[in-house]
Design goal:
Helices cover 0% and strands 50% of the residues. By secondary structure, the chain is an all-beta fold.
Length: 119
Amino acid sequence: QLQLVESGGGLVQPGGSLRLSCAISGGTLDTYAISWFRQAPGKEREEVSCITRRSGSTYVAEPVRDRFTTSRDVVKNMVFLQMTSLKPEDSAVYYCAGDYFCSSSMDYWGAGILVNVSS
């Protein structure tokens, strides 16, 4: 069973950067697509990005496309979300999730990690 563990969150000032990491075990990036989602208090969960299995093609949601990128390290079996020019509205719990294909409903989820953008 796929297991995912997020790291790299925390408090950052507006305009700052953070890189979230998702460590994957129980499967490989050749088999699973990995997405990042986020959920802010009182808001619905939204998909932020996805990186496909095998080819590693990437998708980033339009609202953050000019500031966020996703990448992977197939040797370390990790996926990353690089976030720049952070805004207070980016504050949320960020989750990485895995499944065979990118979708809004993934089978395997990490516990989530808090990102707080505040001065």
